[in-house]
Amino acid sequence: MDKALLAFLIIPLFAAVLIPFAARYRPRMADILANVTLLAGLANLAWLALSPSMIASEFANLPGDGLSLLLVGAIYLVGLCVTFFSAWFLDENLPNRPAYYSLLLVSVAAMTGVVTSTDFFTLYVFVEVLAVTSFALITTDESFAGVEGALKYFFLTFPASALIIVGLAILMLTLGSLSYENLRIFMSSDIPAGPVTFGAALIMLGFIIKSGVVPFHAWTPDAYQGAYAPVSAHLAGIVTKISGVYALIKMATLLRFFDGRAQALSEMLMFLGLLSIAVGAIAALRQKDFKRMLAFSSISQVGYIVLAAGLGTPLALIGAVFHLFNHATFKTVLFLNSASVERSAGTTDMDKLGGLEHSMPWTSWTSVVALLSTAGVPPLSGFWSKLLIILALWESGLRTYAVLALLFSIVTLAYFMVMQRKVFFGKKTAAAESSPEVSAPLLAPAIVMCGLIVALGLLFPYFYTYLKVVAERIII
Amino acid sequence: MNLLLIPIVLPLVSALALLLMREKTRYLKEVLASAAALVSLLAAANIFLLPQQELVYSWLGAGMNFTLRADNLSAFLLLAVSLFSAAISIYSFSLPAKGSSKWFFFNLLMTQSFAAGAALADNMVAMLFFWEGLLVFLYTFIALSQDTAAAKRTAMKAFLINGVTDLCLLVGITITGYIAGTMSMNEISHNKLTLDYGWSVFAYVLLLIGAVSKAGAFPFHTWIPDAAKDSSAPFMAYVPAAIDKLLGIYFLARASVYLFQLNGTMSLILMSLGAVTILVAVMMAFVQKDYKRLLSYHAVSQTGYMILGIGTLNPVGIAGGLFHMINHATYKSCLFMTAGAVERQAGTGDLSKLGGLFRAMPLTGLCFLIAAAAISGIAPLNGFFSKELVYKGALDTGYPIFFWAAELGSFLTLASFLKLGHSVYFGSRPEELKDTKEAPFSMLLPMTALAAICVAFGFGARLPIENFIGPCMVALNIQTPMLSGFHADKLYFVSVIVILAAVINHMLGLAAGGGKPSKSSDHIHYAPVLKEAYALAERRAFDLYEQSMDRVVPVFSLLLFKVDRFFDWVIDTVPSRATGFLSGASSRFHNGSYPLYMALTLAGAVIYILLAAGNGGLK
Question: Which residues of A touch B597 (CB under 8 A)?
């Protein structure tokens, strides 16, 4: 474990235990405790990474490899947005309100564990904890669709866990250890890889399934669509990314894709990435449901990260990490907005929606910012990460991949334009007639995230120095 | 400010100031425009009297300086441009039929400014800049002169014809500059280009097209008769009659004599173009039934004399061409002014409805008589002397056919003016015109001034030839022999014969037309072969623009439309169908069936494991 960040794991876990007791008679205490815990954590993190002395020294004194710090920041950010949103979104008479917040905090703690672990077994344990909390969270409102989505998630990711365990066993047998460091040292030596890479490949397959890469994506649309609205944002924004995609990036650095070891694995990963981009984008074009379209968009965006991770060059990894972070910002905004629309208009069926921009201007325009960032329109943050990924592909001579990635970025814009027109622009429909703008607290997370999208886009040069430090540390 | 800039900048600034004024102000716009034109005229006279001046600003780089250079020819041209601008702006003072007066004077001053720039520019790129500016204001001038759809259509016609030929000029100037290695006309003239190789012939022909189209020669003239109907008299008196002729012939002379050393073939081509222009246009003019339209065909026909004169390439002919240019501008402006005056006072320009106006409008009639006599080449008015020079030049080339063509043109010119004058000013006055009065002073003043110039340049032909045309020839680096003087030689007698023939023809026509002067051309109009030819011409069968608009353009547009639809289909319909199909298929696939999903996942996993094991895994 990375001990510098241990507190960020322990404290939410402690708060999760505390909440059921504290909120026993006053359910509102659960909201307050969860929010305060995450806000305090976020403030602490911000000070760690962004104190003036840190910026002045160009992030030379970052604890750990910098990647964990960045991702813990993303986890806390999304977690805070979701808890804050939930505090005003949840039904007053929801019976298991304290449980909901406890689960959210446990999930935050588990994700922190995932990104701070230094060996595969710890990683596996936290990923499983995360999976269990996710099943429970999806079914928060006990709707039929939620239960169905949770079951699909469970049954389809169950083989993934099995594969990871088998992979771990092979790795243990051949390498004698499960720590990242040993694998890294092994891969940089000249010993023929053999079964070690096979074991790694199995572990990787497990995480590929968990991140919802095509053709293992089938559970994501159902799970995201069926999940309780704020939980969709939590799941799509950060949980699946941490439980799957993060591990893929980590493996890409450990297996040293950039110097040609495990070449076949690298190529397979890139192929799957491009397949995800294509299938996700094309499938999203014709979706009728707001949340389901966002789910397919999520598959497509995960494709970009996986593609970059598969390439594995420093530039590509910077792009992958940055895109992971950006995905957390823009997808959270879009899912939270879909929750607002569901609350206000009573449906997420895009054929029944329309003309919401008049009554819900803030929701409409935060969506525009987020979707433009997703499509990679300058100067928003999504533009820079996509640019880095495409540049890295081009520089490595993979022209076809670069051009296709660019083309599907246009398709991304296309389906989001369809979404924006059907939901927010155009004529008012019956459903839109009686849908007022949601209250300010519900808007606040989306607005903060939009501010972050714009700020990261405009201040990209500073952020780039941070990412360069990260890339230098994780590729040794 | 440098003196050279005043004739360009002053009208420009005044034109912009005009836009700030309200349409309702009385006489303010007129006074401002006339004052600007008059001050420019003074400046132009000053420039003309001073020795040669030059003004150089570095401009586009690569040898393209903004150079204004007032050599004798340019200064003379500037003087002429300013003179006509002043005359027209005074003439238009109280003419209601010129459209919105704000926009009229705006266009007038803008045209003046750009014409002055084109006359003075030494660098061909700078000249082209001003030249193209004229094109813009040609369009607005016509389009805003009447509030009708026909005016817009004619404006578009003029714009397209001149736009295409200006494009030729642009290409020609580019090639010329490339071959010569410089864009400065002055520098090129020190080392003239010859027509020995293809590119330079091509370049010269393009310059030629640009120049003669500006001058309104056949076959680029077709918008002028239309404009006569669809725009105002002052516009006709100003642009097609004066400015366009001046600039077109000026640049034709520059290109043919100053920039290029032409050979015999090109000279023949030029002379043929001139002769054809004279005859085609005058034949059309002869049968017209409208005052301005008849004049407009003559404006085309007279261009032929200038082109013919310059095409002879001998000093006498060139001097004749240039002299005819200034003479033509004078009398044709004057004629259009009389047309405007008659239209204003009598309310129509239709020859069959006019008659006997000489009593009512004696001064206008007198001006018409002088100008008509001048255009018909009756001694001793200015037109006679310039035509005589052109004839002499044509005879000197050894191809008498051009001389006869020019004389035939002269005959028809006189015949048509006999008809015109008789129909408008003599004969019996119709009942409706009993109360017609003389035109106002502001219209009479420029008219009489121009008529006076016609007389002065005729009786004292030595003066303009020595003071204007002689220096121009010096500027073009041509050695000139003795040019002026009244010679009672055989040319004079030929012209007397032509006059007699025209009078006899008019008598015949009157007799055949039942004594009605407006029908005195019918015996030629409806002569056996000519009847069909005229009928075709009336249907615009010989109008390149209308023909291409009717035949070529629709086919071409349709083709382009189809090509566009094809590309639209390729980049729009095909991808959207394909993605629509794919996403529809994927929507149907994601039907929520758990076994299907599980099967897919397992199949994917198996393939992945096999591949991972095969490629370097378990070997």
Answer: 152, 156, 218-219
